[in-house]
Design a protein that fits this description.
The chain is an all-alpha fold. The protein has two domains: 1-40, no CATH class; 54-277, MetI-like (MetI-like fold), CATH 1.10.3720.10. Helix content is 78%, strand content 0%. It is built from twelve helices and no strands. It has helices at 10-40, 54-60, 63-97, 102-108, 110-113, 116-127, 132-157, 161-169, 174-201, 205-212, 224-233, 237-277. The longest helix has 41 residues, at 237-277.
């Protein structure tokens, strides 16, 4: 229906503009998602016999999948803690002495934009003798610390200087200012950085493949992506689809856990700011 002037109304124009996005969601996400559940519920692509949750149960009982899941969880937790703690340490000079760390963060961003091949070759030159797990962690920390430091530097710049000056006049030292006023204001940026790191971590398969030159790396760095990649090479689509569903559930659960942690930090932030005001 057109308006009285013969032109489309504003609501109709918005619907027309949204149509390509809706079609994109349908064809790029909903239909492939339905196909994913279909393949996960059949025995193979030739017989196509319905097995229900059989593939999912087989994967959950597979020793290689459990090894990949354990390694992924351990490496993810270690990588997040290392990068976030290093970012906090690097932002301390700004918090304590007012030394701007934005320039340092920009320099540390360079590894993130390096080609993966170059990053891997540099790691082999410097830390090629490290255990496989530490090689991956070192590479991840080196490539992502700059982004987290930039987030934290921006968050620290948002703290009102008048509040800090008033607290100094009341006798607060630099450590108290950081713990009770500056750190609580950084919790939002820590949460954003954590979500970014989770997304970055699941792309580490590329570096792992380049480092070890195979989809069967040492057991301590065998990840969920390796497990899925190996099923793809074998054209085992039902198991690949089932593993993709479990991988998506794991990714969603991880991000949900990070969001819960961020909410808890925000709650603690309110308490700490309240103590600072008192």
């Amino acid at each position: 229906m057109r308006g009285k002037s013969g032109k489309l109304t504003f609501r109709q124009q918005m619907k027309l503009m949204a149509l390509p996005g809706i079609l994109g969601v349908i064809f790029l996400y909903i239909l492939p998602g339905c196909a994913l559940f279909y393949y996960a519920a059949i025995n193979n692509v030739f017989q196509k016999r319905f097995v229900g949750l059989g593939n999912l149960l087989d994967i959950l009982g597979n020793s290689y999948f459990l090894l990949a899941l354990k390694n992924t969880v351990l490496l993810l937790v270690a990588a997040l803690l290392m990068v976030l703690l290093l970012g906090l340490l690097l932002v301390l000079p700004d918090a304590f002495f007012g030394w701007r760390m934005t320039g340092v963060a920009v320099v540390l961003l360079v590894p993130l934009f390096m080609p993966s091949v170059l990053s891997v070759e540099l790691l082999r030159l410097v830390g090629g003798g490290l255990p496989p797990r530490w090689q991956l962690l070192t590479l991840f920390v080196w490539r992502n610390t700059g982004v987290v430091l930039l987030f934290l530097s921006v968050g620290l710049a948002k703290v009102e200087k008048d509040m800090l000056e008033a607290a100094r006049l009341d006798g607060a030292n630099r450590w108290q200012l950081f713990v009770y006023m500056q750190f609580p204001m950084l919790t939002l940026y820590i949460g954003v950085g954590a979500v970014f790191l989770v997304m970055q971590f699941f792309g580490i398969f590329r570096e792992a493949y380049l480092l070890f030159g195979t989809s069967f790396p040492p057991d301590e760095v065998y990840l969920l992506q390796h497990y899925m990649h190996n099923h793809f090479l074998r054209l085992n689509y039902p198991y690949l689809a089932a593993a993709a569903i479990l991988f998506t559930a794991f990714l969603a659960g991880t991000i949900w856990g990070v969001r819960l942690l961020q909410s808890a930090m925000w709650h603690q932030r309110g308490k700490m700011l309240g103590q600072a005001v008192i």
